[in-house]
Amino acid sequence: MADPHFGLERHDPEGFSLTAAVDSAPPDEPSLPVGEWLRKNLFSSPFNTVLTLVFTVVALAGLRGLLNFAFSEERNWDAVRVNLRLLFTQAYPEDQYIRVWVSVGIVVALSGLSLGLWARLSGVPVARVAMWSMTAGGLIALGVVLREPSAVSGPDGDPMRDAAGEVIRQSFGAAMGDRIWWWLAAAVLFGVGAGLWRGFEDERRRHTYVPTIPLVFGSLGVVVATLWLYRWGHYAFTGNEFVYEPDRTAALSTKLPWTVMWLLLMASWAAGRQGRGTPAEGRLKVLVNLAWLLSPFILFWVVLRDPAIDWAHVWSTDLPMAAGFVIGGGAVLYGLTRPGIGEVGRVIAVGLLAFAGFNWVAAFAGWYPMLQKARFGFLLLALAALLAPNFTGERAQRLRLVWGWAGAMTVVQYLVTMANTESTLNTPTSEFLGGFSVTLFVAVFTLIFSFPLGVLLALGRTSKLPIFRVLSTAYIEAMRGIPLITVLFFFANMLNLFLPQNMELGSVAAVTVGFSLFAAAYLAENVRGGLQAVGRSQYEASDAVGLTTVQRTMFIVLPQGLRVSIPPLVGQVISTFKETSLLAVIGIFDFLFLANRAIPSQSEFLGVKREGLLFVSIVYWIFAFSMSKYSQRLERRLGVGER
Amino acid sequence: MTAADTAGGAAGADTGAHARADMIVCEGVSKWFGDFQALDGITATIAEREVVVVLGPSGSGKSTWIRCINHLEHHQEGRIVVDGVELTNDLRNIEQIRSEVGMVFQQFNLFPHLTVLGNITLAPIWVRKKPRREAEAAARALLERVGIPEQAEKYPGQLSGGQQQRVAIARALAMDPRVMLFDEPTSALDPEMIKEVLDVMKGLARSGMTMMVVTHEMGFAREVADRVVFMEEGQIVETGTPEHFFTSPAEDRTKQFLSQIL
Ligand SMILES: Nc1ncnc2c1ncn2[C@@H]1O[C@H](COP(=O)(O)OP(=O)(O)OP(=O)(O)O)[C@@H](O)[C@H]1O
Ligand SMILES: [Mg+2]
């Protein structure tokens, strides 16, 4: 009888169970000889044999089609090579380009620090490295055989054609001979893998680990080294001139920054590593997390935008206002967290909320002018004041809260001031981002804004108070009933009509708002699933020790619920990241738009579209795939020891 | 009929403790789950420093009663007064009573995402407003008292059941409660761990804590209880000293119950 698994059953190397990883390794199955493995898994019955053969043919045909497409003589990969910078940062001014590298550098340094501080990388088993290497070699060899013979090029370098206009191709033998370098690469990879495999006995192959960090840094180092050694060529598009210099190594403006990035990655990793196990480790981790949280704001609004600071205005208005909120607000919160403040506190908080709300009404009605950031400041203060009675305590505890408020307010006031300041960048349009950078911008800020909103909506929907429940449910269901593209068109075209006077958002910002509001509705449902997974016993235990509802939510329900919702949340982040490609449809110069519309309209590459699209897909895939891998790691790590 | 009976029984059994103040007073407490009446006119008084063990067959309402006392369930009829504060729907009264009444659950109900120390100090810091340092010192002292000082930094999932239950007791004690409620604290434990938890509870009783304990551990009832209360179908059938209760029970239903479990 046919095997119900169609012979596809296999062990997922990643999918070991938690307890097994912590306590005892699962008993090893001896690895079968290749022939036996094939017989057992692929050819165990006539039916499975047929299935295996059919799907092998289909897979090979698919691979052949893809290779013929990617390597066809008709492909003009120059369109991508020349436009790489355009694809990632569009028209970011050449003379300011150092700002882009600084931004990349900051992200690289933070990644290195985080790796050093957090990563628990045991290493990759030799067996796995050997399998990777052999698979890579095998795939290359397969590709070399599968891809159709190259066209014979004529004297002008174009492919020769026969009388019927068909491209004349080499003989199979000649083609294989021409691909000698590919054969060599395949042989080396396969040989290294096989050597590793043979060099270790069954047991040790699985339990000898190649340390991950040297493996990763080494591989990256090899890539960086080829920039200096291999003749990748120099291709660029500088404003109106296309540069082709095939017979040289990459330009200094490419290889130098990437070399610096590589060194920076290793240095910051080493620094993080140093911090591990020291008494300051906890504090360092908090700092790095804070830096991650702030980095998108600082990078996009300060580093990349280069605001032209108007010092007169800063001294006369911005600083005094910031100081007022930091000190005044801090004092109010210090007072409101005094134990036993009771009803008075609530009255003050409600009064503040009424005042903050009134400011917004006035903004829409145009009654009196007020800086937008003051309105936001009062609103934040009112919300903090409402929560304050839950966090009363002794002096040190209260001072900690006040410091938290002061820090948050300083950052908020600084960032809003920066965002409101004119940019000095000399860009053709008012948007300074384009291509992949705009994709990242929208994705990152959508995440940052939709996350808190989604959590609040989820709390609202599970709340006992009907008003919160009804409003949240209505919002979530409304948003989920509207197609995303409609939401985006709406926000791109109409948001500014609904904003108070003197407040305007550029199209990218407007669309980001739309994205965030949309994503929040879906996120809320994921979070709600997590919240509902928190058992009744946890609520009862919190109640029994006397926590208030807000305290119970903050200290017990959210930490546990969010942990459960991590896998769906990462799924949501990935889909949001990919959905940003809808920006292309509403005419924003995002990654996809450049490949689909901008490059094909360049004089040099009229109509050359497929290459760009393939490249864009690959980049999207790399990012999405890494995120999903990372989430698997995260899930596993969060599970250990805390359940 | 039962109300009068119970009142009489309670008064009779109270003789040994009538000099002390009343800690928990229940008067005619009734509770329904939909149409089903889980508590039927419970009247009882528990004095300061008294240890009361509640017995009864499954489904008799023991848990429901004990959970009404810190308002995890709310009663629909009658009065409950804890340490002079009446349980009404006023949130402040509820909060006050909860911070004075510690509860230990059958399934421990520890917070799995917090360390043992985090579990114990959370409420003292945020409800009692204790400085963190003081709260942690007190938590370590409590862990010492329940016999697991070395487990402070671990997570509940890394402890045995008996250790978890002792952490749960420490968590409740960290609020300096005036009353401790135990709902079958040893029922989820393997036999070899029951003793370590019962020992902690005995120590607590000796120290003069007012305790209300639902348990099937007859040895504990005999040794520690000042009074045993027997419930059935939401009513108090009989109360008395352990001696009276185990040797010469008055009610047939009590005799039947005892014959089944002893
Ligand atoms: N939330 C609820 N909804 C409906 N019925 C309930 C609920 N909780 C308890 N009951 C019912 O109330 C009655 C008393 O339950 P309770 O849990 O107090 O019994 P118990 O004496 O503690 O029993 P056990 O020894 O099994 O723990 C039972 O019949 C139970 O089915
Ligand atoms: Mg029960």
Please, how many helices of chain B? Answer: 10
Distance between the termini of chain B: 28 Å
Number of strands of chain A: 4
Largest sheet of chain B: 6 strands, mixed
Mean of residue pLDDT values of chain B = 89
List the bound ligands: adenosine-5'-triphosphate, magnesium ion
Can you give the helix content of chain A as a percent range? 55-70%
Low-pLDDT stretches of chain A are 1-28
Question: Largest beta sheet of chain B: what is the strand line-up?
Answer: 6-7-8-3-9-10
Order of helical and strand elements of chain B: HEEEHEEHEHHHEHEHEEHH
The radius of gyration over CA of chain B amounts to 18 Å
Number of helices in the DSSP assignment of chain A: 26
Describe the overall structure:
Among the domains of chain A are: 92-153 and 169-281, no CATH class; 309-420, no CATH class. Helices cover 68% and strands 2% of the residues of chain A. Chain A has 26 helices and 4 strands. Chain A has a two-stranded antiparallel ribbon with strand order 1-2. Chain A has a two-stranded antiparallel sheet with strand order 3-4. In chain A, α15 (343-365) packs antiparallel against α16 (372-387), α22 (536-544) runs antiparallel to α23 and α24 (566-579) packs antiparallel against α26 (610-639). Chain A is globular and about 90 Å long. The longest helix of chain B is centred in the last third of the chain and has 16 residues, at 191-206. Chain B is globular. Chain B has a 6-stranded mixed sheet with strand order 6-7-8-3-9-10, with helices on both faces. A 4-stranded antiparallel sheet of chain B has the order 2-1-4-5. The two termini of chain B are 28 Å apart. Chain B is an alpha/beta fold. Chains A and B meet through α22 and α23 of A and α3, β6 and α4 of B. The complex binds adenosine-5'-triphosphate and magnesium ion. Residues 33, 36, 38, 56, 58-64 of chain B line the site of adenosine-5'-triphosphate.
